[in-house]
From TrEMBL:
<keyword id="KW-0472">Membrane</keyword>
<feature type="compositionally biased region" description="Polar residues">
    <location>
        <begin position="1"/>
        <end position="18"/>
    </location>
</feature>
<feature type="compositionally biased region" description="Basic and acidic residues">
    <location>
        <begin position="118"/>
        <end position="127"/>
    </location>
</feature>
<protein>
    <submittedName>
        <fullName>Uncharacterized protein</fullName>
    </submittedName>
</protein>
<feature type="transmembrane region" description="Helical">
    <location>
        <begin position="32"/>
        <end position="50"/>
    </location>
</feature>
<feature type="region of interest" description="Disordered">
    <location>
        <begin position="109"/>
        <end position="133"/>
    </location>
</feature>
<feature type="region of interest" description="Disordered">
    <location>
        <begin position="1"/>
        <end position="22"/>
    </location>
</feature>
<keyword id="KW-0812">Transmembrane</keyword>
<feature type="region of interest" description="Disordered">
    <location>
        <begin position="152"/>
        <end position="183"/>
    </location>
</feature>
<feature type="transmembrane region" description="Helical">
    <location>
        <begin position="62"/>
        <end position="82"/>
    </location>
</feature>
<keyword id="KW-1133">Transmembrane helix</keyword>
Amino acid sequence: MPAASRNSETVPPASRSSARPVRTEIITTDRVAIVLSLIWLGTAGQILWLAPSDPAIPLDGFHILMTLLALFLPVGMIWVAAITMRATHVMREESTRLQAAVDAMRQARVAQSRHAAARPERPKAGPDRSGLQHKTAAISFSRNHANLRPASATHKALAQKGAERDQRSLPLATPPEALDPPLTNADFIRALNFPETADDTNGFAALRRALRDRATARMIQASQDVLTLLSQSGVYMDDLPPDRARPELWRQFAQGSRGREIAPLGGIHDDTALSQTAERMKQDPIFRDVAHHFLRRFDRTFADFEARASDAEISAFGDTRTARAFMLLGRVAGTFD
């Protein structure tokens, strides 16, 4: 893993609390445009149909063209206004999301300094990793505000996410993200590692593009949830450099292999992190549900990614914070037994 990626713990993506209202506004805009178009066409058509014909006016191509323009030009203007309003809603949502992410990063830096001062040092079992000493605790976001919230509120929200996330249906209107180009593998990998710092412009850009993809956005949210809960137990992914597994093993996992055949994928061997995670898995039902939801989402998402990824891209994916969380939770849950 590059040194730049070890500077801080994961910073979850900004709250997407405005996504549903914005989509509602877009659907409402489309419906209003449809209703206005039908009203205009009905009214204008009735007037033209009932208007007495004047034999002095010849019925040639020019008059037919002008009649059609008078009939359909207002409809075109209605839809131009509707498309403009849709673009305005999308830009406003994006601006709100970016501002929330930046604000969260600033608060995370403050939390980092406090945590580093209060946290006792653990004995080092391996070589010195001084570059990993600065971690940022994962932050859980409210659905309505990009503010920090207490752990109890985090638990209540996470208890409902796993059941709700897979049951959301597509809106009636075509969502704006459906018009975006396909997510590249490089952006997918960078997004699942989360932005490094508040100045990580490329990381935030990749995260924005990844959040427009429904499946990847669900994977990012599941990863954020589990990393948030792990950080509450003092388990940080930057403290857990894994043993690298060959891309062939990752491909076997994507194709359905489980157990000792793919045991090298469980490359996290930190006894403290494993024991703390196993203890919480037994005692905390909220954590257990979130962890199992994350593992299921990881299975489906990685299977899709493996089909289009090269060996080098799979190796880079194995170094992400999301992949490390999978290795840790997979060992605790018995995926590699």
